Amino acid sequence: MRSLICLLALLCAPALAAPPATVKSRPLSELAIHPQREASAQAVSLNLAKLSAELAARIDSIPVEPGQRIAQGAVVAQLDCTDTRIAAQRTQAELESSQARLKLAQLQLQRSTELAAKNFISGDALDAKQTEVAVVAAEVRLDTAAHAAARRDVGKCTLRSPYPAIVEARLAQVGELASPGTPIVQLWDTSRLQLAVQLQADDADRLAQSTPIFDSQGREYAVKLLRVSPALNPVSRTREARFGFAKAAPAPGSSGVLRWRDPRPFVPADYLVRRAGRLGVFVVRGQIARFVPLLGAQEGRPAAADALAGDAAIVTDGRFALQDGMAVSLR
Fold this sequence. Notes:
Layout: H1 2-16, E1 21-27, H2 28-31, E2 36-45, E3 48-52, E4 57-61, E5 69-70, E6 75-79, H3 82-117, H4 123-155, E7 158-160, E8 165-170, E9 177-178, E10 183-189, E11 193-200, H5 201-206, E12 213-216, E13 219-228, E14 238-245, E15 255-261, E16 266-267, E17 273-275, E18 278-285, E19 288-293, E20 303-304, E21 313-317, E22 328-330
Parallel strand pairs: 1-22
Antiparallel strand pairs: 1-21, 2-11, 2-15, 3-10, 4-6, 4-9, 5-8, 6-7, 8-10, 11-14, 12-13, 12-15, 13-14, 16-20, 17-18, 18-19, 18-21
């Protein structure tokens, strides 16, 4: 009798089993969103230079004004170099004199060599002529170097911009006596601009996979990631990232917002459910619903689902009644 009851129970069990839950699903690749991120950013120049006088001279002119854009090589200051030019002329004369003496010494050495071959002069006299040529040749080299230095000083009378720039400030006045090291103008280098951004550590690791845009004063600029500092700011707990401008660039000092899309797929908040105190999604795997917790998921906010494959079947309808391991049928 007992065996008969057990047999009847086994035969009736399939009829009593709950039917599969009917659900709808969509691939993660179709419903995923990529939230927009943003961070404050500023265009900075790698060079903010103070051009200084290298000579002691009176300032004749400063032909640039603050805010003016200038080309590379543009004159930014002119010094009175009358004394410097006179010194250059003096070294030129000294060089010409030593060159003339060298030419004479070489001619005398040539004649002495011919006479020595005929035994008309002693070997000591020939040695003296050779020494004289060597001494005068050394004087020529010395005068050549002195003249080159004097000409270089003349070139220092005109201060030129070393790069395309924007004049930040005039630091001296026309008529003042400048000494070596006196700053005259301050320039922003516009040829080497970068974008400096302070990023949260997590964003810094993923930014290389996105296409960021810098928005400043209503204009957008394409930028490219150059590097992310490995150092963490001890106060803000952020890392600095540097970007280069792909084409056009804003003026140095321009501030704005860097915007980019998170490269990770996010599940919209509507599809999140809570099971056993954790938020996640149900994924259909072989007609079975599996609950997949999403790390860091928060109520009412999209959750990162980078741990799931793009073709993962996310349950969109019928998810609230599901439990992990339930059989499902798709409709």
